[in-house]
């Protein structure tokens, strides 16, 4: 499953995992800052995308992988498709919360 | 020292804004003063009152771990930075409500509505959102209904649930009516909105099957397609063969919406609801930011008078005096009971540190209030004559453009038939007269602002952009609301017969969805067929129900404050509660029993009986209208009874605590030291 994900994302998932900040939406700590400017830009864009995802209540696969790796290294890693189904169920399963 | 000086300056600026608003009589003034007065008041309220609530009343401390930290599961319980969560929470609480209420209440002039929006939010609305968020956060994200049950009693819990369901039905009906009034006989609008359904389906398949999980990608594609649909609408409207296909009557659109609501609530969430949710969230945030930037850029003059003569209760947009109806009409934006559902939904499970709740709960609601202020600005930049021509039902205007101009001149505002025809032509519509419901006049105001900032020739495009923006998230509310209603009905049904409560049993899903869709559908059809356009009777009913839900939330809040041993601070929720009860009970009383047939449901029924006897109204039609009046009166009565029951059962609880007969003990989750402290 891992290998499949890595093939599909060109190892991006792994790269993100290494740099994944504890809190989605915050920048990684300075020690992790890559030196290449394009990598830093890439990281900024990723952080923005993460923030937007969370604002809209979208699933965030990479953050979930980070969570699993940190807190439940023994659990099997779901594919992105499985994670999406799981997320949508937990977010809307009891009825969505939206206002007028 | 510098800080103190800064706050004094902010306070003085806010006061200057209010002074300008209050003292300029007869001359037009710039919207800048409105914005300064509002923002100055928000800043003072946030800095001092919310800090007082956080420190003294709730005792928030970052040393106590939040459920997001303790129960982190990477899905719904996720610690989230405060500005991101602020965005998330704001996107969840804001919707059509704060945009439409102020536009309708603008018939009293811009001042009364603005005062209520700004001071209401600082002292009541934001307090309610904040306390419910904190209460839910300290109870691992429990819902309002659960908290009512656990803190006050099982009866109150059940009453709160029935109230929420009833309110949902009225809310969906009135919002659907707003869309129907904006889209009827409007090929451009209907085409664009109809396109959002296939676009959402495409996005759904994109992120479920085609490229699983790629929600961002799918949303961007959706947004591009939406823009294409918007521009394409113009082609449809100007085509002789296509335009008639999309020029639907109000009734046809209403039936289609009921069918849509039912189907959407039965389909799997990923297919329609989830993509729509993402699309409307991005649209909402984008448009609100754009509107704020535009107002600050253009700083338009407010053409509407500060106060109009209609505060005496003779208003043509809706009947009733300033008190209580201005405070009923503007619900979201000043205080909205619905937010209590959101603040006890996903947000409390994502707060990272306790003290962040101040920005998210209190600050998020201030932001919502600012949206309402902007809506008021958008209504006030229109010529008053144009505002009334759009917002007053055609039957009251006299039936045609010439008579309408005459009627409006009688009210003291100038508008010519040619002006209305030319305006309608400029925005690509056949007519704008009597397009009640607030959305078209808001769209007109927004289009005026946007085209003032970005080029006059795009008026039509901006108008339909604004219509699409409103209709898009109202339709999202329709499918989420029908689904929420279905869940609640299933839970209530489960008490009667166990299988009805199974949320995955198909017959139960279909049956309860159908009941909910037909429930709001009935009120929607009633509104569409109403000779006065329906907004006159349904919007006050919605306002009353929303404010009464806020009263329930404040009862829960007061109980929680008292149980936490902070009886001396209970006034913080008791004062807004007392005000809300005064407003809503007066309004309900008048809506049910006022002898004026324009206000009182029963008086209207009696007058209709007379008209049928005299032969001026067709008997079949008349008896249907009478039935609707009686039904509305019953609904209002049910609201009042439920809320009085909740208030009385809470008051009993408070009495027991005050008399010392009950040991105050809050049912909070255990205290755990947080790793995020400092």
Report on this structure:
The complex is a heterodimer of chains A (100) and B (678). By secondary structure, chain A is mainly alpha-helical. Helix content of chain A is 60%, strand content 0%. Chain A is built from five helices and no strands. The longest helix of chain A has 20 residues. Chain A is flat and about 45 Å long. The N terminus of chain A is likely disordered. Chain B is mainly α. Chain B has a single domain, classed as Amino acid/polyamine transporter I (Up-down Bundle), CATH 1.20.1740. Helix content of chain B is 72%, strand content 1%. Chain B is built from 27 helices and two strands. The two termini of chain B are 24 Å apart. The relative contact order of chain B is 0.15. Chains A and B meet through helix 3, helix 4 and helix 5 of A and helix 4, helix 10, helix 13, helix 15 and helix 22 of B.
Order of helices and strands of chain B: HEHHHHHHHHHHHHEHHHHHHHHHHHHHH
Distance between the termini of chain A: 41 Å
| Fraction of residues in β-strands of chain A | under 5%
Q: Main β-sheet of chain A: number of strands, strand sense, barrel status?
A: none
Q: How many β-strands of chain A, per DSSP?
A: 0
Q: Which strands sit side by side, in order, in the main sheet of chain B?
A: 1-2
| Biggest interface | A-B, 42 and 60 residues
How far from one another are the termini of chain B?
Answer: 24 Å
Tell the overall outline of chain A.
flat
Uncertain spans of chain B: none
The secondary-structure element order of chain A is HHHHH
| CATH-assigned homologous superfamily of chain B | Amino acid/polyamine transporter I
């Amino acid at each position: 499953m891992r290998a499949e994900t890595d093939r599909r994302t060109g190892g991006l998932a792994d790269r993100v995992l290494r740099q994944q900040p504890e809190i989605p939406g915050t920048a990684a700590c300075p020690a992790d800052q890559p030196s290449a400017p394009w990598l830093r830009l890439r990281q900024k864009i990723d952080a923005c995308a993460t923030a937007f995802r969370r604002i809209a209540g979208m699933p965030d696969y990479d953050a979930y992988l980070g969570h699993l790796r940190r807190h439940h290294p023994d659990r099997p890693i779901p594919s992105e498709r499985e994670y999406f189904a799981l997320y949508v169920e937990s977010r809307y399963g009891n009825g969505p919360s939206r206002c007028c | 020292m510098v800080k103190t000086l800064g706050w004094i300056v902010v306070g003085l600026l806010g006061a200057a804004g209010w002074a300008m608003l209050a003292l300029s009589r007869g001359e037009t003034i710039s919207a800048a003063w409105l914005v300064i007065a509002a923002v100055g008041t928000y800043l003072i309220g946030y800095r001092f009152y919310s800090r007082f609530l956080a420190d003294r009343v709730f005792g928030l401390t970052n040393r106590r771990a939040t459920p997001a930290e303790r129960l982190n599961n990477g899905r719904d319980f996720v610690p989230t930075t405060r500005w991101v969560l602020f965005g998330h929470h704001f996107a969840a609480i804001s919707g059509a409500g704060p945009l439409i209420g102020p536009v309708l209440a603008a018939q009293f002039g811009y001042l009364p509505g603005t005062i209520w929006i700004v001071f209401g939010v600082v002292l009541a609305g934001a307090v309610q959102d904040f306390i419910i968020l904190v209460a839910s956060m300290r109870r691992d994200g429990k819902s309002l209904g659960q908290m009512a049950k656990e803190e006050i009693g099982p009866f109150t819990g059940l009453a709160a649930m029935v109230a929420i369901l009833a309110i949902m039905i009225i809310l969906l009906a009135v919002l659907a009516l707003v869309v129907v009034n904006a889209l009827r006989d409007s090929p451009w609008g209907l085409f664009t909105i109809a396109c959002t359904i296939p676009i959402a389906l495409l996005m759904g398949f994109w992120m479920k099957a085609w490229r699983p999980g790629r929600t961002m990608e799918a949303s961007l594609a959706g947004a591009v397609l939406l823009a294409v649909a918007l521009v394409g609408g113009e082609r449809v409207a100007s085509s002789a063969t296509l335009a008639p296909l999309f020029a639907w009557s109000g009734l046809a659109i209403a039936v289609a919406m009921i069918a849509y609501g039912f189907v959407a609530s039965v389909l799997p969430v990923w297919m329609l609801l989830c993509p729509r949710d993402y699309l409307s969230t991005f649209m909402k945030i984008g448009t609100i930011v754009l509107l704020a930037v535009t107002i600050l850029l253009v700083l338009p003059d407010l053409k509407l008078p500060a106060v109009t003569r209609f505060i005496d209760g003779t208003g043509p947009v809706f009947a009733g005096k300033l008190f209580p109806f201005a405070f009923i009409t503007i619900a979201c934006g000043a205080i909205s009971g619905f937010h209590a559902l959101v603040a006890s939904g996903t947000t409390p499970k994502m707060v990272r540190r306790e003290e962040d709740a101040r920005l998210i709960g209190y600050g998020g609601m201030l932001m919502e209030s600012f949206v309402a202020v902007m809506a008021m600005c958008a209504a006030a930049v229109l010529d008053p004559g144009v505002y009334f021509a759009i917002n007053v039902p055609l039957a009251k205007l006299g039936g045609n453009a010439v008579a309408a101009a005459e009627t409006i001149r009688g009210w003291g505002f100038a508008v010519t038939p040619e002006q209305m025809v030319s305006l309608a032509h400029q925005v690509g519509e056949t007519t704008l007269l009597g397009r009640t419901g607030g959305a078209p006049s808001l769209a007109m105001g927004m289009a005026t602002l946007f085209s003032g900032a970005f080029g006059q020739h795009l008026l039509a495009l901006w108008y339909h952009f604004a219509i699409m923006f409103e209709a898009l998230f109202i339709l999202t509310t329709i499918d989420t609301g029908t689904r929420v209603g279905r869940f609640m009905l299933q839970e209530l049904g489960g008490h009667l017969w166990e299988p009805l409560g199974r949320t995955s049993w198909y017959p139960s899903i279909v049956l309860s969805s159908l009941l909910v869709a037909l429930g709001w559908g009935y009120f929607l059809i009633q509104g569409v067929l109403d000779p006065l356009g329906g907004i006159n009777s349904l919007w006050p009913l919605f306002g009353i129900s929303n404010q009464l839900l806020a009263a329930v939330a404040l009862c829960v809040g007061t109980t929680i404050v008292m149980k936490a041993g902070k009886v001396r601070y209970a006034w913080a929720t008791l004062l807004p509660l007392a005000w809300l009860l005064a407003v809503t009970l007066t309004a309900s009383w008048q809506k049910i029993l006022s002898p004026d047939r324009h206000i009182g449901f029963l008086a209207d029924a009696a007058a209709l009986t007379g008209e049928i006897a005299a032969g001026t109204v067709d008997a079949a039609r008349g008896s249907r209208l009478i039935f609707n009046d009686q039904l509305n009166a019953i609904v209002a009565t049910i609201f009042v009874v439920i809320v009085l029951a909740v208030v009385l059962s809470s008051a009993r609880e408070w009495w027991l605590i005050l008399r010392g007969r009950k040991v105050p003990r809050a049912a909070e989750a255990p205290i755990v030291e947080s790793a995020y402290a400092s």
